[in-house]
Please model this.
Amino acid sequence: MSWEQREHLSSLLDGELDPATQDRVLGELNEDEGLRDLWGRYHLIGEVLRGEPVSHGVIAVADRVRKCLEEEPVMLSPRPRISIPRGLVHVGGWALAASVALLAIVSGPTLFRGAATPSTWLVRQEPPTPILYRDQSGVRWGVRRPEVESKLNSFLANHQAYSPVAGLKGMVSYATFARYDSGR
Amino acid sequence: MTNRPPDDELVERARGGDRRAFDLLVLRYQQRVANLVSRYVREPSETQDVTQEVFIKAYRALKGFRRDSAFYTWLYRIAINTAKNFLVAQSRRPPGSDLGVETAEQLGMGGRIRDYATPERELLSEEIATTIRAALDGLPEDLRTAITLRELEGMSYEEIAEAMSCPIGTVRSRIFRAREVIDKHLKPLLQP
Model:
């Protein structure tokens, strides 16, 4: 046990040893029983100077803990998070918001109006085939009064014109099944 | 006080899987933890077992230690919980209230351990304390001041250097030399 090793141990005890030397000292401590004893005595000196109770030799579990941990898998701490400068976080947030806004502008009309709004990218557009809603009795509405039927048709026409989701097939499909009143 | 806790580097290394660093932490705190555990567990052999369990639990939980508190404060909580769980497992009732870390230490938690310490050990402990204090008193002024500022005041080398108007290297050397002088008196007492 050299003078230098002992001085390094003293610095390690105080948390004042540079990291590069620490690794070497830890290795030496692992192999040198004398250094480990010295570590214990240095501690004892500190405890007495601080007025802590001295009960040397009563408890010595270090070796037992050491043996137990030898059988344990090595515990690795999670990698530290990469810190992103605050400015970049804001830029990233704005970029994400801009992307979402762009997506909404591009896909919004198609999504919410569908066939009701002609799209420029459609090469060929065929007129929709009229589908007549008929119940099992062959009547469009389950009412037999023409004025009520006309009101219903009027309601559906307005609904088709103003509802933002009227063009969404599959969601409110009944709307596209409706036919305008022939009299309108 | 701006000094970095001396445990930091060792804790960081232990978190990275360096068992040697954890071993040093065990050596550093085994007595304090045992003193604390002995408040709950009276049997000496049980105190040893529970203390060992505390450190094994601490090792397993190290990756979760976020440094929100000092390492010993974190270890203290593990020790209290382990001791209480031990009592519950033994169908014994744990004490109703816990002391804070500082209070527990100030009240001299070693008292319980002394309950079952043999007279020879008691005598040795007293002799150790007397020898160390006498050696401290016999140190040259600069060495005594340096080690006192470090051990009693908990000052960093940088702060001591500022207080004593000398380079950090000199502080390092003075503290080491002080320990060496005291150790020369202490070592013969501890040899079997």
User: Anything to note?
Assistant: Chain B touches chain A through 73 residues (CB under 8 Å).
